[in-house]
Design goal:
This protein has 64 residues and is mainly alpha-helical. The protein has helices at residues 20-47, 49-63. It has two helices and no strands. Helix 1 (20-47) crosses helix 2 (49-63). The longest helix has 28 residues, at 20-47.
Length: 64
């Protein structure tokens, strides 16, 4: 019968960049979210609220 393989010690990443990936992904997500909000505000101020909401409604209608 086959026996499961167990490591004596768990692997650890002690490199200087260990743990940075989640932080970098968080910053990238926050940056992209900020750009989306900034773009929405720019459209709002440029076209006005009526046209802005009409564009959003038309976009949702096209998707669904």
């Amino acid at each position: 019968m086959a026996q499961p393989l167990h490591q004596a010690q768990p692997l650890q990443d002690n490199s200087p960049t260990a743990g940075r990936l989640p932080f970098v992904l968080l910053l990238a997500g926050a940056g992209i979210g900020g750009l989306v909000v900034l773009g929405a505000l720019a459209l709002w101020f440029h076209y006005g609220s009526q046209v802005f909401f009409e564009m959003i409604r038309t976009g949702f209608a096209a998707c669904f």
